[in-house]
Structure formats: structure tokens, C-alpha cells
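P.,

For your records, the input lines for the assembly:
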Amino acid sequence: MSDSSILVTGATGKTGSRVAANLMQRGFDVRAVSRKSAVRFDWDDASTWQAALQGVRAVYIVHPGLGFDGATEQVGDFARAAAAAGVKKAVLASTPDDGSEFSQAMRAAEHHIVNAGLDLTSLRLRWFFQNFSEDFLLQSVRSGELRLPAGSGKEAFVDADDIAEVAVAALTDERHNGRQYDLTGPCLLSFAEVAQEITSGAQHPLSYVSLDPATYVAEQVAQQVPEEWAYSFSVLYQDIANNKLAQVSGDVEAVLGKPARDFSTFVSAMGKAGVWR
Ligand SMILES: NC(=O)c1ccc[n+]([C@@H]2O[C@H](COP(=O)([O-])OP(=O)(O)OC[C@H]3O[C@@H](n4cnc5c(N)ncnc54)[C@H](OP(=O)(O)O)[C@@H]3O)[C@@H](O)[C@H]2O)c1
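C-alpha cells returned:
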């Protein structure tokens, strides 16, 4: 407990909502913000930052555009405003090093935070289980077909509940200052294996169709997805196809002292809750 607050950005999103709820359950004073909160917070409007930062000692940073034009500088400006407002610590939703321009932008954002004088814990995240239940893959799962350019590559999908628990540990315990955690699930899965798990574990028939990248982009554009986004996603799927980050880390267990949640348990819970009906 403390007399100052913990600021959670992206608080209506997959990880921020869980971080805020977890902190509140533990009795911390939490300011949960997004563009929809009472204290409005907008990355694109720096005039909203000051009110959000008042009386705050630590901040969970989710920037949905991180890795894209302008977002790195916004995070740097925000980190400097935070340090000036008395914030000591930041935990960043980030991504692993894979040598891409995208991950270089992530590293640059991390440097900005450290250079602003904040203690940083960087959470280098893999694809979330919840992409299938709360986000951009939900409709495809409901439709019974995942049509993606990911070949037979594998990804170390991770549960957002584990990400949130690690974020809470990092926000509230200074032993995590200066650390980088590679947050993965306990095993590697291809999209064909994901489809199989959902078919058998949630009794929801799902197939995976491996597309070539150009067909994927054309199909997305036909569904009104902006071409630039469709192209960016196709690059991410090709990284999976190429097994670019096909490695499991033990960092969730090292931080939490218990194994990372597995995909089968998630699938069974989502099946019972009826999210894919
Ligand atoms: N999904 C994955 O598999 C994955 C994997 C690796 C890394 N990541 C990283 O994780 C981050 C996303 O975290 P998440 O999945 O928890 O978030 P999310 O579910 O995508 O939600 C985005 C959050 O950001 C808020 N937001 C959007 N635009 C905003 C703006 N202009 N100003 C202020 N807030 C804004 C949204 O709230 P409002 O709409 O209410 O404002 C929402 O709370 C991204 O940086 C992404 O690169 C994701």
C-alpha cells in the first residue's frame, strides 16, 4: 500500500484491464486510463497527460501504435513528463528483439524511458491467447476458419493473465527494476495446432488455411481493412511462418513462482464461457 497511485494506461485493453483489476484487488490505489476514462488519457493529445500523472509513482505503459511512426517519440515525451511529475518507475508492454525495424523502435522507446530517469521493466511479449477471444482473431474463430499467411510456423502464445501478473509484480517490487522479461506461454503452437485445440477442447470446429501473403492482404482489403495494416499483419504472420521467435522462455515462472498458463486450459474456459458461439 502507498499514498501515491499507480497509473495504468490502455486500461480498457487486454493487458491494462487485467493489470488494473489485479492491482485493485491487492489494495493499491490505481488510476486506470484510456481515451474513454473519466480522467481522459490520449497518446495523441499531450495536454491530457498531466492530470493522469498527478500523484503517480509508477506507470504501466501500453501504446497501441508502438513500433510505428511517431509512437516512439510520444513515449519519450510522456516519460519525460512522467519523470518531471515525480513518477519513478515504468513497466512497458514491449516486444522481443528480432532485428526488425519494429523491434528497433521498441528498443528506442525503452531507451527514451531510461534516459528520462525512470526505472524500467520491459515486458517483451509474444502473441496473446486473448487475440483469439477478445481481439482481431475472434471473428475468424467464430466463423470456423483461420485464413492466415503463417505457414506451419510456431509461436510461443502467452496468456494475458500471466502478463498482467508479471506487470503487477514489476510495478510493485523494485527488484524487477532494470530487468527485461521475455513472456511466453509454456509451449510452441502452430496455427494448425491452435485450430485443433479449439476444435477438440471447446467443441468448436475450426480449421486453419495457410495463405500466401499477397492473398491474405487482398482478402483483408476486401473486408475493408486498410492495406497498410493488412500488410503489417502479413509481415508479423510471415515472422511466425519463418519461426523467427520460436522459443519458449522460463521468465513467467521465474517471476511468478508458478508455471505459465497453458493454452488447453484457456481453450476449455473460453469454450465453457461460450465466447466462440
Ligand atoms: N496482441 C498481441 O499478441 C501482442 C503481442 C506482443 C506485443 N503486443 C503489444 O501490446 C500492446 C497492446 O496491449 P493490449 O493488447 O493490452 O492493448 P489492446 O487490447 O490492444 O488495447 C489498446 C488499449 O489502448 C487504448 N488506446 C488506443 N488508442 C489510444 C490512444 N490514442 N490514447 C490512449 N489510449 C489508447 C485503448 O483504449 P481506448 O480505446 O479506450 O482509448 C485500449 O485500452 C501493443 O503495444 C502491442 O504492440 C501485443
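Two observations worth noting. The longest helix spans residues 101-115. The chain is about 45% helix and 15% strand.

Regards
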